[in-house]
Write a structure and sequence with these properties.
mainly alpha
Length: 300
Amino acid sequence: MELSVQFILLALAPIFVITLGIEFLYLRRHKQRYASAQYSWADTISNGTLALLHEASDGLMNTFFIMGIYYVLYDFRLMEIENSWLSFLALFFLQDFFYYWFHRGSHRIRFMWASHVVHHSSEKLNLSTAFRQSFTYPISGMWLFWVPIVLIGFEPELVLGSVLLSLAYQFFVHTQLVPKLGPLEWIFNTPSHHRVHHAKNPEYIDRNYGGVLIIWDRLFGTFVEENDAIPLEYGITRQVHSHNPLYLTLHEWRDMFKDAFSGKKSALQRIGHLWRPPEWQPHDDARPENDMPAQSQLSK
């Protein structure tokens, strides 16, 4: 079962490709209306290559490292949980809750942002953007966020499966073609909510972290609704102009360590470049709070 669970996304690949093809054909007929959604060979091939690198990295790390740790921790579980619809529902909500915090941390902790920035670095937003992932997620600690679920007593295979199914759902929110979905917008992460998440407009930066559900953003104050009057701009504030998968994956790691080890700084300041928000600089601590630039003006 362990092997089959890890191949959930690959098993769903035909559905992803067919849906992507339908979007591509529709967008070709509406180039002016959806300029920032148009496919290009360079961007799409880069996204596909990043997806393959990510799948290979995750597969190897899950098989030879992460699942082993989960099984060791599972021996110390707090309770025995029988498989039932109620337990699957509880797993769904727990996974989505911890995904929210993983995603929020990936924007507000630079060491995690170094991996996640890859996903946001395209100035286009279409279904192929969902493929734009980093092979460094195991290094930046994505897997650590599911440890509490294992310790509660959920089987590691089911935990991994729930994460992958959540990511499968999120493929479909990376589109500009789906309008707002009425009452569903109150509960679920929809394409409208996720368009906001990918926008680099100051009012939208670092918002809407939800995976399947948007309720966590509403509860914890990170929700912003898409404003139809504001044209969305995609990408990152320090935009990179490259389609090289290795450069896209490693450029923020390089910049982060360069900041950490350059200049005259204390040990805490050097560590701050890793664990503080991406926009943080040592001189920020010495500035009055009311003189600090707004987070939205700085965050990547």
